[in-house]
Amino acid sequence: MAAPRRDTATPLRFDGARFLIVEGRFYTDINDMLIAGARAAFEAAGGTVEVITMPGALELPIALAIALDAAEAEGRPYAGAVALGCIVRGETYHFEIVSNDSNRALIDLAVTRRLPFGNGILTVENDEQALARARLDGGDKGGDAARAALALLALKHKGGRS
What we know:
Number of domains: 1
Radius of gyration: 15 Å
CATH class: Alpha Beta
Number of helices: 5
Largest sheet: 4 strands, parallel
Distance between the termini: 30 Å
Helix content: 40-55%
Strand content: 15-25%
CATH superfamily: Lumazine/riboflavin synthase
Order of helices and strands: EHEHEHEHH
């Protein structure tokens, strides 16, 4: 895996903003690391975090849509969201179905709703790759997903201009 090249600029601030993490909890240790990274990035930006847990990645787009609708109905919309989880290639075509379909549905939902969104669902060949990408002192892909959502939120606040 290539070394991360993260921006070291001052973190974005969105004090009081609500962020949502939807996670497909299949690999507990990996998910715990991904959530810790995403939570740290959102909290560093001044936000609060809510986590919704689903059994796997295929349920995440549906869970995200339901949660977004409920938050809107309550008058407490989320400022942004991330999806987290891990899909390890197995011996069948199931890996491709779960990876492709969950990703496509999440991106379609984010684009349709103009939702600042980060995708932190790992798609890996084995446990070692997952650990390398999930660890906070390694790939920190949970944090990267949250920072992507924060960057999109900043763009949204600027009216689409950089």
